[in-house]
Design goal:
The chain is α/β, with parallel strands linked by helices. The protein has 7 helices and 7 strands; from the N terminus they run βααβαβαβααβαββ. Strands 1-7-6-5-2-3-4 form a 7-stranded mixed β-sheet, sandwiched between helices. Helix 1 runs antiparallel to helix 3 and helix 2 runs parallel beside helix 3. The N and C termini lie close together (7 Å). Bound molecules: S-adenosylmethionine.
Length: 204
Amino acid sequence: MSPQPIRIPSDIKNLPHSASASHLIDVSNERIEAFMLSDDRVIENFVPCDFHLLDQALSWIEQNHLLTGRRFCEFGSGFGVAAMLAAARGMESVGIEIESSLVDQANRLSEELGLSSKFYCGSFVPHDISEIIEISRDVEHVDTSESEVYQEIGLELDDFDLFFAFPWPGEEHFFESVFAAGAAVNSLLLTYRGRNGMHLLRKT
Ligand SMILES: C[S@@+](CC[C@H](N)C(=O)[O-])C[C@H]1O[C@@H](n2cnc3c(N)ncnc32)[C@H](O)[C@@H]1O
């Protein structure tokens, strides 16, 4: 059975942020801006999501008791703000990112903020998905050739309870297929869809 959507109401935009989440978001936005200005090489696939909306979606998920456990994984973590917001809520949280400079930035910021989130360099795409060539056919913004990092993390895809990703428009199906193929039954996939806000799926 394919993963089932759970509708997130648009009024989550009214949910308040904790002081620590607001601080984390402000510091992260400053760091991202400084990093983008200082780095000569443009990392084309890195675009940050709406961190305020993400924090509100995490609040809504917790308030509605949708989680089956406390392990969080950010697919393509960039600066790692999603994984840090999850860690600030007491979740055991990791981010997986292919660009080493972003992994360094995320680990540095997480440590500076005293958070337990950890970031790993490599691919979130498990190599044992048999239909990977088929599902990655039209996907340009996800690297499907690098080695996966689950062994280094010490956890498998089906050990996590909540995933977050910000797919490029039109590439959502790839993240959903990876989730459907490898995640645990009852785990959740939250994705940011730009103007269409947050989208949530539960694996059934
Ligand atoms: C659109 S950005 C989102 C960054 C972050 N999640 C956010 O919302 O702010 C997508 C990120 O995925 C990374 N990426 C692309 N393919 C990847 C792969 N196979 N494994 C891990 N990261 C990947 C890119 O380098 C980029 O930083």
